[in-house]
Amino acid sequence: MSTASDQIPTKSRQMAFVIDLRRCIGCDTCVLGCKVENDVSSGKSRLKVLDSGGDAIDERPRGTYPNISQYWVPTMCHHCADAPCVRVCPTTALWRRDEDGLVMLDKDKCVGCRRCEEACPYDALSFDDDVGTADKCNFCEHRIAQGQGPACGLVCPTRAILFGDILDPDATVNRLLATREHKILRASSGAKPQIYYLEP
Amino acid sequence: MSSIKSLFPPRDAVSGARRPDRIVRTVCSPNCYGTCGVNAFVKDDRILKIEPASYPDPGFERICLKGIAMATERIHHDKRLTQPLIRTGPRGQGHWQIATWDEAYDYIASRMETVGANYGWKANAWLGMTGNYGARALTSKSRAANCLGGTLFTNLGLMSDGAGHLGTLMTLGAFLTSNDVSSIAKAKYLLFAGRNTADTGHCEMQFVFDALEGGSKLVVIDPRFSRTAAKAHDWLALRPGSDVPLVLAMLNVIVECGLMKEEYVLQHTNAPFLINRVTGAMLRECDLFEGGGSGYVVWDRAVGRPAPVRHARRPALRGSWRISCVDGRTIEARTSFDALWEVWAKYTPASTESLCGIPAEQIRRTAIDYATADPAWIYLGLGIQRYHGGHATFRAYITLAALCGNIGKPYAGVSCIDGPFMRMYMGMGDEWLAPTGTPTHTLPGTKLLESIVQSEPYAIRALWLDNYGFATQSPLFKRFREDALPLLDLFVVNEQVMTDAAAFADVVLPVVSYYEDDWDLVAGGEIWFMQLRQRAVPPLGSSRNDYDIYKGICERLGKGEHWQMAPQESAKFMLDTHKSPSIRAVDWTTLCRDGVARVPKRRYAPGEMPETERAQLSTLFGTTHDEEVPFGDLRFNTPSTRIEIYLEQFCDIGEAVLDFVPPIEGLGSSAHQRYPLNLITYKMVHSAHSQHTILPSIRELLPGPTLEMHAVDANSRGIKEDCEVLVYNDRGRFRVRARVTESVRPGTVALPQGWWNHAYSGGHPSDLAHTKGSVYQNRVFGESNYATFDLAVEVALAAGPATASVSGGAR
Predict the structure, then answer these.
(1) Which domain does B723 fall in, by range?
(2) For testing contact with chain A, the best of B39, B47, B61, B68 (most A CBs within 10 A)
(3) A65–B745 CB contact, under 8 Å
(4) Domain residue spans in chain A?
(5) N or C: which end of chain B has fewer CB within 10 A?
(6) Looking at the structure, do residues B548 and B479 belong to the same domain, yes or no?
(7) What are phi and psi of B347, to 5 degrees?
């Protein structure tokens, strides 16, 4: 498995999520924590938790009784180092922030063309029903700016959602990646996503 | 469905975040053991969000989605009650008049006085459950009933949590015994029986993960593949209610493999005590020795004759002997273990497979793993005791632990629920509960209907509910509505929202949520802390807390002098007058300063507890609990001061020896022949009891209840995924959508609990329930547990149009 730093353009920092699928119980606390932190509209979300069957709501274990298994996968904007949404956005509403590698969204520049929605490998964008502009996880940049972590990680009751600078070898996230099997989703997209999942 | 967005003020244009005007530390305290400390971020008297509050131990800083939804959506929910309501039409028709508190009290007081004049004051009754974990909120009704001379219904049987503790009480001499859950990573083997921590105790699950990361093995016993089972190394999908044969089969393996801790069993259990083979009674010293006392007797192999327990050098565990008594009789005696084994020996893994549905090899492996792990922690959920003979399930696991030497050992033993919450609730001071000095009448809550319909043991004619989702959570509501309600002269409900039960009341009194209340005490469900409830937002409309509601009626009825404490004063009073030394030891200054203070598990140095205190606590809780390790001193509050795996006092009802009594509606019962499926209900990760299922963001994640059934059961009935089905038995019926799944064992159907009437059509699951009494439980406790899961049903494709309103909703 290639290391995280192999995949990323040289930057001073690259913020990433490391999500421990062994610890995730699919309780959706992160979903609600994100909603109230970011005032996300009813019926929308920036974050969802899929179960191993691939659906957020209709959960069901895999296998045949009694040999069945189930795990849960929180997913939001993967803050890709080579983000397809940034490439296709015609108005630069979506852009990658140099200082920490986060993919940002300037809503006032969004024209609602939804090309990003087609390009995103992770179904991370939602669109306002009235205005039509995009919405997505911004890593709680307002909290990061104050030295706090993203709300999803703060509220996670099982401590499954971790975050940090993937380029810092001493960061907890790197220590975890060094000791646990992990993967990224849809690696073939080449987007260099920055959510690393520790194997369930 | 109201929009979540509409509940929030606009975002701050500069920072992008919504800025609170204050942050209040308080406690999330619905009917949930989490009792999480929260910081409520408040703007314009609305809660924007909550965050985990700081704790002396950061491991306890946590919240969950239910708490977030309660804080942001329930306070201003469109079903929220803000004014007293008096009905103006027939009961249950939804015709209400908004009233002032004075008008409501006039209505209530005049009817209570009439009931009192006609039937005596005890015909006015209160029944409360645990919908609000504030100590004052939970117990104000008791204070009111005591002041007014009314009747107080008990709730432990009705809440379906009583049976297991009755098994524990007789075996260990204690109601509650648990390790501190935050220490679970020290255990090497975790046997979870019906324990579904991931779905029901999200905040405790992180400690379980710590254990797994440290190499501990987790085994889950559950008829349904719970979230906890999904995280386990092994899942034992037993037939509902068959824990006893499973455990007895494990014991057979353990004994056969020589893994029983015989020295421990000889020293700390009553297994070696001699009994009369014919009567089952234990032999006493006075039976065998001139001038002997009432002590028990063993067979001393060192001398080849019976000896008092305290003198015997090498007691025998097994054997039978003819023994001469001082009165000249010769009796057939044997050890109690001999009697136990005579029954238990037949539960071999092979013969037990068909009873509990677990393959013999899996039983064998689990038994050996448990008996050889050190330390091995058994964690019980309350589901396993929600059967007619539910007391025996707890007793079985205690017996398993005892024979492996695990009781009284650090990070081993048998845990269920503990923490200071139950102690707080059960040990409130008499000065608080009965300020007049006269405790009032109590009746078993499970016999509510008998007291109203049959006037047994005396007539109840007025009922006042608080903290109780009576319509969805009790087994009684259908019969209450049909048979009892017409006989009541008064039915009052304190509620936050218009529940299915409140809809049938004469008067509904608006009660505050825990965010609107001030200065109440919340003792930790599983963690050893006391927290202070502090007001985050002002009471909505004219809603009041339970204390103030009862204060008003007591003032009307001439008992107002007992209700003059300010909130802060009553909080301090409840602490100072509490019966538990641990609760009294909570530091008031720390609690006021930090909102959280430690509840010491050990108040006294070993051996220093005053005997008077020991006696009082033993009576109250079964044990003193003044120890870090439950039963660490291996001194039990039982007649023998040992673990009583043989229960002499139940010889006459066939319960001296632990044995499998099948569920009353289980396999082989007449009910089961007509209704061949076993309906169990489970708690969901998104909801505890009935408080959360009406909240919009919860409903986005959890659209509605479905009946989980295995493909084998569905196919044989022509039922396909998402079909509407009729679930029925002799007592009731309801319709719901089917979910065909591999996650529940064939023969069992499972339903999430807590959904209101509107989630079903043509009835409610609680209509199918029963409250058939158990002889054992009645003898120990005066009532029996509501056997929620001991329920036979049949399921058929529903004819006619689908009508349930929430199934398959918002995606």
Answers:
(1) 670-797
(2) B68
(3) yes
(4) 4-198
(5) C
(6) yes
(7) -90, 65
Q: Evaluate whether B511 touches B496 at the Cβ level (below 8 Å).
A: yes
Clarify whether residues B707 and B738 are in a common domain. Answer: yes
Whether B215 is covered by a domain: the verdict is no
Residues B772 and B687 both lie in one domain: yes
Strands (E), A37-190: 48-51, 62-64, 67-69, 72-75, 94-96, 103-105, 126-127, 134-135, 161-165, 182-183
DSSP string, B370-433: HHH-SSEEEEE-GGGG-STTTHHHHHHHHHHHHHTT-TTSTT-SEE-S-SHHHHHHHT--HHHH
pTM above 0.90, yes or no: yes
**What single letter denotes the amino acid at residue A122?**
Y
CA of A35 vs chain B CAs: smallest distance (Å): 9
Q: Are residues B496 and B585 in the same domain?
A: yes
Beta-sheet pairing, B85-87 with B96-98: antiparallel
User: Is position B765 within any domain?
Assistant: yes
In the chain, the amino acid numbered B270 is: N
* pLDDT tens-digit series, residues B193-251: 999 999 999 889 999 999 999 999 999 999 999 999 999 999 999 999 999 999 999 99
Fill in the amino acid letter for B465.
L
Return the structure tokens found at B785. Answer: 């547990």
Interface residue A149 vs chain B (CB under 8 A) = no
Percentage of chain B lying above the pLDDT 70 cut? 93
Q: Which among B365, B57, B356, B394 has a CA at the least distance from the CA of B189?
A: B365
B803 lies in some domain: no
* A vs B: CB pairs below 8 A: 124
The shortest CB-CB distance from B743 to any of A22, A61, A141 is to A61
CATH number at B22 reads 2.20.25.90
Which of B5, B235, B237 lies at the smallest CB-CB distance from A41? Answer: B5
Q: Is A29 within 8 Å of B202 when comparing Cβ atoms?
A: yes
- What 3-state class would DSSP assign to A106? coil
Residues B69 and B96 in one domain: no
Encode pLDDT of B509-537 as tens digits. Answer: 999 999 999 999 999 988 899 999 999 99
- Chain A residue at shortest CA distance from B358: A66
Q: Which chain B residues contact residue A23 at CB under 8 A?
A: 206, 209
Contact by Cβ (8 Å): B336, B312:
no
The reply to whether B47 and B92 lie within a common domain is no
Q: Are residues B14 and B126 in the same domain?
A: no
Half-sphere exposure of B693 (CA within 13 A, CB side): 24
Write the burial class of residue B716 (CB in 10 Å: 0-12 exposed, 13-18 middle, 19+ buried): exposed
- Which of A36, A43, A66 minimises the CB distance to B68? A36
What whole-number distance in Å separates Cα of residue B721 and Cα of residue B724? Answer: 9
Determine, for residues B209 and A43 on separate chains, whether the beta-carbon distance falls below 8 Å.
Answer: no
User: Residue B359, Cβ neighbours under 10 Å: how many?
Assistant: 14
**What is the fold, at CATH topology level, of the domain defined by A4-198?**
Alpha-Beta Plaits (3.30.70)
From chain A residues 84-103, the ones with a CB under 8 A of any chain B CB are: none
Domain boundary among B309, B342, B375: B342
Locate A21 and state its tokens.
């699928």
Rg, C-alpha atoms of chain B: 27
Q: How far apart are CA B130 and CA A131, in angstroms?
A: 45
Q: Which of B55, B74, B93 is the last residue of a domain?
A: B74
In this complex, the residue of B16, B48, B703 whose CB is nearest that of residue A36 is B48
For residue B142, being part of any structural domain is answered with yes
CB atoms within 10 A of CB B426: 14
pLDDT band for position B629 (50/70/90)?
confident
Kindly state whether residues B789 and B763 are assigned to the same domain.
yes
Is A155 in contact with B235 (Cβ distance < 8 A)? no
Total domains in the fold of chain B: 4
**Cα gap B114→A122, rounded to integer Å:** 68
